[in-house]
Design brief:
The protein contains nine helices and ten strands. It has about 280 residues and is of the alpha/beta class.
């Protein structure tokens, strides 16, 4: 399996700042893994962070579509989780398709619920068809993923309105102890998934990925085992590692952890590719 390492070094549309800075660090860690380096570049000028972020999403969609057309597996390194919109848009999701999303946060806010006006805190909501309708419809190939086809793992830091939205949704919430049941239920609906790993799903005692990391997260072993479980049930069509800010990681603990996570993802995706 040819792995394309899709590098998206942007945070809220700005290049190499904040969590966008971590992309180069992770890419360097993975450079000797036999990957094809692919860089995404935002085109044109944008007047605000939302327009700039959407420009990045469009560029990701174009690159992922090109890679899939020539048989490469897209593994995206991105500053923001909203890169997922571009990644999924670049895939053929017309059949049974789901998402397994690892994150300390639900990213399930909309403009009506957000308390911090953080555009990247709306990524999963947008991916499932809520909020920013005109912007979502501008992304070629992006189809809303049904809420019931999403498993959200490790979320523990939610805004009040976001929590209410999530509790009223069909998204399955899971932790390591309930993940197998959630994946079994998802496997009755879909065969193919996008695997999303926001690195702040890890507990800060393992490594602090970014300023938003909170206690109560997964151990590295729990995350690796969870990725194995996903690969045993689904064909993984694309994956992402996101949201690493090296300024929050003075001991540089995230890069070796990300390398291990990368290997588990590639092994899981390769196994399901053979069996699919």
């Amino acid at each position: 399996m040819k792995v394309a390492l899709v590098q998206v070094p942007y945070h809220l549309g700005r290049e190499n700042v904040g969590m966008g800075k971590g992309v180069a660090v992770l890419a360097e860690m993975l450079a000797d893994e036999g990957v094809e380096p692919v860089r995404v570049e935002r085109s044109g000028e944008a007047l605000n962070e939302i327009a700039a972020s959407m420009s990045v999403i469009h560029a990701v969609a174009d690159r992922v579509r090109e890679l899939v057309a020539r048989g490469a597996f897209p593994l995206v390194l991105a500053g923001n989780c909203n890169s997922s919109l571009g990644t999924v848009a670049g895939l053929d999701t017309s059949g049974d398709f789901g998402v397994v999303w690892f994150d300390a946060h639900a990213d399930f806010n909309t403009p009506d619920t957000t308390e911090g006006a953080f555009f990247d805190g709306m990524a999963l909501a947008m991916l499932t068809g809520s909020g920013w309708r005109a912007l979502r419809q501008s992304v070629t190939g992006l189809r809303p993923v049904p809420e019931e086809s999403v498993v959200l793992v490790g979320a523990r830091d939610l805004d009040a309105g976001e929590r209410a939205r999530l509790e009223g949704s069909s998204v399955a919430l899971a932790d390591p102890s309930s993940l197998e049941r959630a994946l079994a239920a998802l496997s009755e609906r879909v065969d193919h998934v996008y695997l999303h790993v926001d690195l702040d799903v890890l507990d800060p005692s393992v490594a602090r990925a970014n300023p938003y990391a909170v206690e109560g997260g997964l151990s590295l072993g729990e995350l690796e085992g969870a990725i194995q479980a996903v690969g045993q049930r689904f064909a993984i069509r694309a994956a992402a590692l996101t949201a690493y800010d090296p300024d929050c990681d003075p001991n540089a603990a995230i890069p070796p952890a990300a390398r291990s996570i990368f290997k588990y993802i590639v092994e899981a995706a390769g196994r399901t590719e053979v069996s699919a």
